[in-house]
Design a protein that fits this description.
Elements: H1 2-7, H2 10-33, E1 42-47, E2 50-55, H3 57-76, H4 86-112, H5 127-147, H6 156-170, E3 179-184, H7 187-207, H8 209-224, E4 227-233, E5 236-241, E6 245-251, E7 255-263, E8 272-276, E9 279-283, E10 287-294, E11 299-303, H9 307-326
Parallel strand pairs: 9-11
Antiparallel strand pairs: 1-2, 3-4, 4-5, 5-6, 7-10, 8-9, 10-11
Helix pairs in contact: 2-3, 2-4, 3-4, 4-5, 7-8
């Protein structure tokens, strides 16, 4: 029982079970209040010729209340397990509220369309009630999705945040030893790449579809390697092509020197990820970059985005490398 209690959101569970029940009870009470003005039996299905199927009032009220409960539980209970992503739980909570209210709206429109009629054959579904109720159901569902607090329990992310905050409190210089930035080629380069590949691909679509797909794939790969994410911390330098493909991982203790320079990509083999002799480069364009000398004699070059950013990266790398050498190795962060 304890494991179940720890795996579900108790407040969400109470709402998921209680709201459809209360909504169904409210529908039954309102239906009983207007029962003297309703015909017997009630129409439950309509065609172009009018009402086609009928059912007693008790059946309509009971089946309607059961439908509200079943649909509400089926959707709202999806927001209860804590193992599911927070965004999914928000969506399911909002969708469950909307679905419950929408079903209630349809049932109310069926009853209102038959008020005051001696015979249900001349009845119809009240369009005003259906439209107003559906709009309210959608709006309230969206509001519920935004206000529902899906992360009520302490999570791994909370542990990480606390640990990082404690590290910053104990070591005020830690924040200065961390740099993270994205670098990319000039926009004109991406435009030229698109003209050189996407336009021919569009022309080849009819004649040689597979070749057009190949051209588009090549353009995407080339564009991805003109974007990089650079991260510097006390562990060293980490460079990710396209933001997620790790192409460089240099421990801080292996760095002899880091120097900001204005480089020409052609001197390092061109744009993108290159290995040119004993030099490895990740350059998205010519211009500001950081040149790193390793203790094993190899050299690396990484685009810095701007002169200021390149200088900051070089200073941070020099600082963490000096710290790592003084500590006898790369400290674990």
């Amino acid at each position: 029982m304890g494991k179940i209690r720890d795996s579900v959101d108790a407040r969400a569970l109470r709402f998921a079970i209680g709201f459809p029940l209360m909504l169904a009870a409210g529908f039954v009470v309102c239906a009983l209040l207007v029962r003297p003005d309703l015909p017997e039996p009630l129409a439950i299905r309509w065609t172009s010729a009018g009402a086609a199927d009928f059912a007693p009032f008790v059946t309509v009220a009971g089946a309607g209340a059961s439908l509200i409960v079943v649909i509400g539980w089926a959707v709202l209970l999806q927001a209860v397990p804590l193992s599911r992503p927070a965004m999914m739980r928000r969506i399911m909570m909002g969708a469950g509220l909307s679905m419950s209210l929408f079903v209630t709206t349809v049932l109310a429109a069926v009853l209102v369309g038959q008020l005051g009629l001696p015979d249900a054959r001349g009845s119809h579904v009240d369009a005003s009630v259906l439209a107003l109720g559906s709009g309210a159901a959608l709006g309230l569902g969206i509001v519920m999705g935004f206000v529902f607090k899906a992360d009520e329990r302490w999570s791994v992310d909370d542990d990480l945040a606390v640990r990082q905050e404690l590290e910053r409190e104990q070591d005020p210089d830690l924040a200065r030893d961390r740099v993270s930035l994205w670098v990319h080629a000039r926009s004109s380069i991406f435009v030229m790449l698109g003209i050189a590949t996407l336009l021919p691909a569009a022309l080849l679509t009819i004649a040689v579809p597979w070749l057009s797909v190949l051209l588009v794939a090549a353009a995407l790969v080339a564009a991805a390697f003109l974007v990089a994410r650079i991260r510097v911390d006390r562990g060293g330098l980490h460079v990710f092509a396209a933001g997620f493909v790790r192409v460089m991982d240099v421990p801080a203790a292996a760095i002899d020197a880091a120097t900001p320079r204005d480089v020409t990509a052609a001197d390092y083999g061109g744009w993108g990820y290159r290995i040119h002799g004993n030099t490895t480069a990740m350059l998205v364009s010519s211009g500001p970059a950081v040149v790193i000398d390793r203790s094993d004699g190899r050299r690396l070059a990484v685009s810095g985005g701007s002169a200021t950013a390149a200088d900051n990266i070089a200073q941070t790398l020099s600082r963490v490398a000096d710290r790592a050498r003084r500590n006898g190795g790369t400290p674990a962060v």
